[in-house]
Amino acid sequence: MLRNKLIRGAGASVLAAVLVLTAACGNGGNNAASSGNSNTPSSSPSSSASASQPVESASADKDPIKVGVLASLTGALESYGKQTVNGFELGLDFATDGKKEVNGRAIEFIVEDTETKSDVAIQKATKLLEEDKVDFLVGSSSSADTLAVLPLALEYKKVMVVEPAVADSITGASWNKYIFRTGRNSSQDAVAGAAAIAKQGVKIATFAPDSAFGRDGIAAFKPTAEKLGATIVTEQYADPKATDFTANIQKIISAKPDYLFVVWAGANSPWKQLQDMKVQDQGIKISTGAPDIPALKTMNDLVGMEGFSVYYHTLPQNDINKWLVEEHKKRFGGQVPDLFTPGGMTAAIAIVEALKKTGGDTDTDKLIQTMEGMTFDTPKGQMKFRPEDHQALQTLYAIKLEKQDGFDYPVPVLVRELTMDETAPPIMNNK
Fold first, then answer.
1. Which residues form the signal peptide (predicted)?
2. CATH fold of the domain at 188-309
3. Residue 38 phi/psi, 5° resolution?
């Protein structure tokens, strides 16, 4: 277990997929948030690794507010879990001016490794709720882990802030009133993907794994693209474990689309074979979501690609993101924040903003009433918890991959921001 005990008072130091990228979160438990190598060289959440010595302050006689953070700190999604935890601590520091307290109540957070295993996630969440008596849950890196834990939020009547898991069902069929999601969902990704390339008269082919994750992604993409005037000329689905996509790619080439939109996750990505079969030489533009930096390093052949991004550190232009980038570099050896760092920060900001509005009161009913419809500022700009399903509406980015000096990967360059209204997903919880 990793713990971060509050350093109370002024002595606290300020801490510091595709669609390829949706898998962190896709419906499968081990889906990664991007294809490609997930062994990013990010620092472990070092300041969370050991308890700090508390410093006496005026809040010492008040019960602390406790947050339990579930994250994959080992296994296939290790890098994503670490990014989220680093971001969460940064967010607490930012939102509390480094004090980690609200209305005189200290905020403590306890991090548990789910190992990207649903049974372990349940075990760790139960421990946080029963033994540590946390007031909030946050997490997790895997949608399968998150879906397994949602019933515990209902059973123990505690708010769970979901970050970064993306499965639609989290704020859809499996939702309960205690669930608030700061991360985007699969449908938001799909809507952003369509908004980036679809227009009147454009012909689009789609390619995805034959799984709930892949089919859900295309099911969300297709109506948005068609509404914008595009035509879907073929939908190709491959066995999620396949390594040879020849038949699918031949059918895509035969359909003669203007764009190929790819939803993918996992190490067996189709990128190399798409290049080997010279899809782009046929006049077909490939489009997908820009993943994390390690995965971008596998996409040098896709320079010029039009697509979308959930986050790249140069895309949002606001003071909070500027603070995040500068502070992250200070704390983590000059490294910039990657795909899931701002999400962890956003989860912390949302919790602190809600607590500020309740005066530090952690009564669950009061928190729910406060958070429904709440707007709050984040590294990606303003977000809003939609009252109907508690999904955070948020900005995404239409981008183009460009080669830039000094980078060994294609850099996502902003084409335009996709507003929270533009990327709003359908309400799917039937409540």
1. 1-23
2. Rossmann fold (3.40.50)
3. -95, 5
